[in-house]
Design a protein that fits this description.
By secondary structure, the protein is α/β, with parallel strands linked by helices. It has helices at residues 16-23, 37-50, 52-56, 60-68, 70-74, 94-100, 114-127, 134-141, 148-156, 162-175, 188-193, 195-206, 248-251, 254-259, and strands spanning 4-10, 29-31, 82-86, 107-111, 183-187. A five-stranded parallel sheet has the order 2-3-1-4-5, with helices on both faces. The protein is globular and about 60 Å long.
Length: 274
């Protein structure tokens, strides 16, 4: 089945799972867990560029067709005609999308204040104290003391941290003016406080007819396996939309509050990212 693809990127703990759970109510749209499709495309393309076997008998059209068919082959079992392909790396792969998937990429980028994202992670680690999170595992491997400040530093590392990487990648995409038309920012607070308005804005961006979603009895029909994260409720979605998060000042130290404040590039007064 040939699918129509839209894309999702954004920051972790910024409402992505909630947003997908709502979108997936549409009988024409599949919005599942984070997908490895972009990684499969990237590494296979790298193989064609470096393989001695391929260099001995190069077939550019065959290589192109191979890469182009990866999304539909990976999602062969999805019966819905539209797929929201979710991976934070899509914002750095707009040209690859245009070359192999669609000439008009549309990427939904969920964002949230960085301190709130860190607060969500730290609160979740405390709540899952019977498990060793991927964050603590990473700190232990590097012989770094495990505490909430080092956890925040680990998350915010621009090279290896899940928050820092996503923040940097998305910021770079929004800086490139030629890419902005392909990106839609969805702020966590808007998704929670103005849910229907936000959904209508999303449908307008996707150029799809609006589907009347319901915002109670929400279900995550495609729950990602949380075992690898060491936090069993990482992708849990509440049945109703409500704000339950603690304030950063209640959870984070002054060190973290000072170091990681004012990193929200989308709030810069020059509006160059809008």
């Amino acid at each position: 089945m040939n699918h129509t693809y839209y894309f999702m990127a954004g920051l972790p703990r910024a409402g992505g799972t909630l947003l997908k759970s709502i979108i997936d109510q549409n009988p024409d749209i599949y919005a599942g867990p984070v997908s490895p499709v972009i990684e499969l495309m990237y590494y296979n393309q790298y193989y064609f560029h470096t393989s001695e076997a391929y260099e001995g008998d190069p077939k550019p059209k065959s290589a192109y067709n191979f890469l182009k068919c990866i999304p539909d082959n990976y999602h062969f079992d999805i019966k819905k005609p539209i797929i929201i392909e979710h991976n934070r790396a899509w914002v750095n792969n707009i040209e690859r999308i245009k070359a192999y998937i669609t000439p008009n990429p549309k990427i939904i980028c969920t964002v949230r204040d960085v301190l709130e994202v860190l607060t969500s992670f730290i609160t979740m680690i405390h709540r899952n104290s019977d498990q060793v999170s991927f964050i603590d595992e990473g700190l232990i491997e590097k012989n770094i003391p495990v505490n909430d400040d080092t956890r925040c530093d680990f998350l915010m590392d621009f090279e290896t941290g899940i928050v820092g990487q996503a923040l940097f990648a998305q910021e770079q995409a929004f800086i490139r003016r030629e890419d902005k038309e392909y990106l839609l920012l969805v702020e966590y607070n808007d998704l929670v406080d103005k849910t229907e308005e936000t959904m209508r804005r999303l449908y307008k961006f996707l150029e799809l007819d609006y589907y009347p979603h319901h915002f109670d009895n929400i279900k995550n029909n495609h729950r990602e396996i949380d075992k690898g994260w060491g936090m069993k409720d990482m992708h849990e979605v509440r049945s109703t939309i409500k704000r339950v998060s603690k304030r950063p000042e209640e959870v984070l130290s002054n060190y973290a509050l000072n170091k990681y404040s004012n990193l929200e590039y989308w709030k810069i007064s020059s509006s160059r990212y809008y």
